[in-house]
Design brief:
Layout (H helix, E strand, L loop, with lengths): L5 E7 L3 H11 L5 E5 L12 E2 L1 H10 L2 H7 L1 E2 L2 E5 L5 E4 L17 E2 L2 H14 L5 E2 L2 E7 L4 E7 L2 E12 L6 H6 L5 E16 L5 E5 L8 E5 L6 E7 L9 H12 L5 E17 L4 E2 L2 E3 L5 E2 L7 H20 L8 H26 L42 E4 L4 E3 H5 L4 E6 L12 E6 L5 E3 L3 H6 L6 E4 L5 E5 L4 H11 L6
Parallel strand pairs: 1-2, 1-11, 2-8, 5-13, 11-18, 22-23
Antiparallel strand pairs: 3-7, 4-7, 5-6, 9-10, 10-11, 12-15, 12-16, 13-14, 14-15, 16-19, 17-18, 20-21, 20-24, 22-25, 25-26
Helix pairs in contact: 1-4, 1-7, 7-8
Length: about 500
């Protein structure tokens, strides 16, 4: 039990992962601090792609419309040949949205804009980032974590029930825990810069020397800004010249075009591509999220999205344990998310190899809609009928109509920090109400109607069955009316025990 001197959670690192976790805790009323050692927000475009599954997460967090308004979609890619001719093509499939998958293409928005919108959402929830606070050390026992912070007013000691390392690929938290970070350097050094320039139009993504990893150059208009993101392969040795003059000279040398002129460089970075995965995500009361747990090459736009979904997975579990759920609930975080990161590392590395051959097209594999947790301890398989949708899968969306006549979406029911229990064509509730559990019924004589059978097609429930959906939008189980005792036992495992 925490006392008045104990904070529930200390989050170290205010990038996208730390901000996602902070929003999740804030909307559940969990006391926390979010610290960031830099004096001001990150200013670069780095992770600019928001995949469809992350868009669903952002809808739940209340920022998707703002993200769409501040960004845009990816332009077509223009590949230039050595003789100055070019061809334009799409770099991703153009699948139409469906009732089950309303978001179908990646959005483009610079990372600094995404994080700004997340900070604004956090302020709406009554919290803010504390910039200029560095974690200098920590110790833990079975009850709490004691951390030393160095901030604008000097050193202070903070006691919290949990410490979260969201402090990036060079994580101080991970290193202090002594967690190994195995993997490999991928033999590619690159630079990325955000620049104002003239000489190229903003309707396409300009690609030069595609397939030549020594001379590759990519210049992409950044949606929602007047800037372009410049990406280029760099020599493995020597200093990278990231000045206006140095970048402009590189562009001239690699394109033979003297009409591309830089006015300013807002941000620039040189880096070596790595693929690494932490051996563990949790030791005692200290956990890792995002780049502190895994780093990917940028191909396929997987890193930022995987980091956000790490925090989205951890947030509701952390809040549940703090408010009384069994501590072992947190063990499911690593067992669910580490295999996902391992898979994403393989995907991103494979896409990098394809890029070396000049192949840049992206398909469904990068959308992250097919991520699931079938082997999770929080996935309760029952003896129901054979169906395409299984416990552990992402819960699909579906159009609905309320009994009063208004249009609804299944995602509307899921939005918020609660669990959802949905009954299909059932005459009575299977279980009494609980705090943080919303119960709905769909079908004839129920509060909601299944518009054109989309819910039935997506979930394949038979009349009388119930589907339980976790706060992060994954199917926990599907049960029959005779399996109320199964739900009772499961709710005890996840802390849903208070009858309203």
């Amino acid at each position: 039990m925490e006392d008045e001197y104990t904070l529930a959670v200390l989050i170290c690192g205010a990038g996208a992962a730390g901000l996602t976790l902070a929003i999740e805790l804030a909307r559940r009323g969990v006391p926390f601090r979010l610290i960031e050692k830099t004096d001001q927000p990150f200013s670069g475009s780095r992770g600019k792609g928001i995949q469809p599954r992350t868009q669903e997460v952002f809808e739940d967090l209340g920022i998707l419309d703002r993200v769409v308004a501040a960004g845009g979609t990816y332009p077509r890619m223009r590949e230039y040949q050595n003789d100055g001719t070019y061809t334009d093509r799409d770099i991703a499939g153009q699948d139409d949205p469906t009732s089950a998958e309303p978001y179908h293409i990646a959005l483009m928005i610079p990372q600094f804009q995404t994080e700004r919108l997340m900070r604004e959402r956090l302020v709406e929830l009554g919290h803010q980032v504390e910039f200029g606070y560095e974690l200098a050390g920590f110790e833990q026992d079975e009850h709490s974590v004691t951390a030393r912070l160095i901030g604008p007013a000097g050193e202070e000691v903070v006691h919290s029930r949990y410490l979260i390392g969201a402090d990036g690929g060079r994580s101080f938290v991970r290193d202090t825990l002594g967690i190994d970070f195995p993997g490999k350097t991928l033999g590619v050094r690159a630079m990325v810069a955000d620049a104002a320039l003239t000489g190229l139009d903003r309707e396409v993504w300009h690609q030069f020397n595609n397939g030549n990893m020594e001379r590759m150059l990519s210049i992409c208009p950044l949606a929602g800004t007047d800037l372009f993101q410049i990406q280029a392969a760099m020599p493995r040795d020597g200093e990278a010249d990231l000045s206006i003059e140095g970048i402009e000279a590189m562009i001239l040398e690699r394109t033979a075009r003297n009409d591309v002129k830089l006015q300013s460089v807002a941000w620039a970075s040189a880096y070596s591509m790595n693929a690494r995965l932490a051996d563990r995500y949790k030791i005692g009361r200290v956990l890792l999220v995002g780049d502190a747990a895994h780093i990917h090459p940028p191909t396929g736009g997987q890193g930022l999205n995987t980091s956000i979904q790490d925090a989205y997975n951890l947030g509701w579990k952390l809040a549940a344990v703090i408010t009384g759920a069994p501590d072992r609930l947190l063990d499911s975080y690593e067992s669910e998310r580490r295999p996902v990161a391992e898979s994403m590392l393989g995907l991103a590395a494979g896409l990098l190899e394809a890029a070396k051959r000049g192949e840049m097209r992206r398909g469904r594999e990068v959308h992250q809609l097919d991520i699931g947790y079938p082997g999770s301890p929080l996935t309760l398989s029952t003896s129901g009928c054979v169906r395409a949708l299984l416990a552990g899968d992402r819960a699909p969306d579906a159009p609905l109509r309320g009994a009063a006549g208004c249009s609804r979406r299944l995602f509307d029911l899921f939005t918020g920090p609660h669990w959802s229990l949905i009954g299909f064509e059932t005459e009575r509730d299977i279980i009494k109400g609980r705090k943080d559990l919303h119960i709905h019924r769909i079908g004839a004589g129920c509060e909601l109607k299944d518009v054109d059978g989309h819910f039935r097609d997506a979930y394949e429930l038979i009349p009388g069955e119930w589907v339980l959906v976790r706060p992060d939008g994954y199917v926990a189980t599907i049960v029959t009316p005779d399996e109320a005792s199964v739900l009772q036992a499961f709710f005890a495992e996840v802390g849903l025990t208070g009858i309203q």
